[in-house]
């Protein structure tokens, strides 16, 4: 049987032979005792790309997000963020458990959290209301179908944060995709934020890892929080070598994934049984007209196309470096045939 066309996530990529060689040949040290040289190089490169003073490597984006929130907030306060944000929906109440912070979701029509919506959510000072200690944004927005937050919108949120004296965390798991979609450097989108999380294991194709960028003077605090969360690592250069390879070889090709996502949506547009949402990056939401996602997915799997359910009548497909343009054409054909039956 042919290899399945795996559109479940951009996390399913496998390291290429060249990336594996870079990992095998990595110069390593003990990152806890006296630093790992390859990890230091990656952290310096990430800080440079994001325009921040420093960065640290993390095993996962969730751990990096949780560290950023813990750094910026205080127990017994509130964090404001978009109602369907990853931090709220997919990190199993980590903000409450790890930082002692209450999350207050702000509803948006499209997943884009604007300064105007945040300003309306800020309540007057009162002994009865919890104090807000930080704001958070997400770019691209996973649950909104890879929605890209424009630089001007992020700037507006940053200006509001400065005006009211609040730090801003950016969940930029797919910030690389947002920058590619807008044609701007990642630092342009990261500029308004105090802390920024970026993933290496999604669009960049690494087997593991994320980084958190932050002001250089707070490095010791971030290190301490990561250590408390279980993040002390030893010869981490074997992992971070993959990140350095990906930044050099995979960052510049993200537009190919976006083109494939657009082709997938365009190829299914007009089909009577599905309504694709126009993608802005590498995520395609497919709304089923008559079928249920749980009924369709096994049929697609049997035909070699893997997608995920994102609601009772919605499928999610994510393009990535392990899916070719030819495979997208095949996926269009299979999805159309399955939904025709």
**Averaging pLDDT over every residue, what do you get?**
97
Assembly of the depicted chains: single chain
Secondary-structure element series: EHHEHEHHEHEHEHHEEHHHEEHEEEH
Instruction: Give the tally of structural domains.
Output: 2
Task: State the end-to-end distance.
Answer: 22 Å
Q: CATH H-level name of the largest domain... which superfamily?
A: Type I PLP-dependent aspartate aminotransferase-like (Major domain)
Low-confidence blocks of residues: none
CATH class of the largest domain: Alpha Beta
Describe the 3D structure.
With 341 residues, this protein is an alpha/beta fold. The chain folds into two domains: 17-249, Aspartate Aminotransferase, domain 2; 253-340, Aspartate Aminotransferase, domain 1, CATH 3.90.1150.10. The protein has 14 helices and 13 strands. It has helices spanning 17-24, 37-50, 61-72, 86-89, 94-99, 115-121, 151-164, 175-182, 186-190, 219-228, 237-249, 254-268, 293-302, 325-340; strands spanning 5-6, 54-58, 78-82, 102-106, 132-138, 168-172, 195-199, 210-214, 274-276, 283-288, 305-306, 308-309, 314-318. The longest helix has 16 residues, at 325-340. It is globular, with a radius of gyration of 20 Å. The model has no long low-confidence stretch (mean pLDDT 97).
Task: Produce a short descriptive summary.
The chain contains 14 helices and 13 strands. It has 341 residues and is an alpha/beta fold. The chain has a 7-stranded mixed sheet with strand order 2-8-7-6-5-3-4, sandwiched between helices. Strands 9-10-13-12 form a 4-stranded antiparallel sheet. The chain has a two-stranded parallel ribbon with strand order 1-11.
């Amino acid at each position: 049987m042919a290899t399945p066309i795996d559109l479940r996530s951009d996390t399913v990529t496998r390291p290429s032979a060249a990336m594996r060689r870079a990992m095998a040949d990595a110069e390593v040290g003990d990152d806890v005792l006296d630093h790992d040289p390859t990890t230091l190089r990656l952290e310096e490169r990430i800080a440079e790309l994001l325009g921040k003073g420093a960065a640290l490597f993390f095993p996962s984006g969730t751990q990096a997000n949780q560290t950023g929130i813990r750094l910026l907030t205080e127990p017994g306060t509130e964090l404001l963020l978009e109602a369907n944000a990853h931090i709220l929906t997919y990190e199993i109440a980590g903000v409450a458990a790890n930082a002692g912070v209450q999350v207050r979701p702000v509803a948006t029509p499209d997943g884009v959290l604007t300064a105007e919506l945040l300003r309306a959510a800020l309540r007057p000072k009162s002994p009865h209301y919890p104090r807000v200690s930080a704001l958070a944004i997400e770019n691209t927005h996973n649950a909104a179908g890879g929605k890209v937050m424009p630089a001007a919108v992020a700037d507006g949120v940053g200006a509001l944060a400065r005006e009211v004296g609040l730090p801003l965390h950016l969940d930029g798991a797919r910030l690389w995709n947002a920058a590619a979609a807008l044609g701007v450097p990642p630092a342009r989108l990261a500029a308004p934020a105090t802390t920024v999380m970026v993933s290496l294991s999604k669009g960049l194709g690494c087997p593991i890892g994320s980084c958190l960028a932050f002001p250089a003077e707070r490095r010791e605090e971030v290190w301490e929080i990561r250590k408390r969360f279980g993040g002390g690592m030893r010869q981490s250069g074997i992992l971070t070598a993959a990140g350095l390879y990906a930044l050099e070889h995979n960052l510049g090709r993200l537009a190919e994934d976006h083109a494939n996502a657009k082709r997938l949506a365009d190829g299914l547009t007009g089909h009577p049984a599905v309504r694709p949402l126009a993608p802005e990056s590498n995520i395609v939401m497919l709304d089923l007209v008559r079928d249920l996602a749980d009924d369709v997915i096994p049929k697609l799997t049997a035909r070699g196309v893997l997608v995920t359910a994102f609601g009772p009548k919605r499928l999610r497909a994510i393009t990535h470096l392990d899916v070719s343009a030819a495979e997208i054409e095949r996926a269009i054909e299979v999805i159309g045939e399955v939904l025709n039956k």
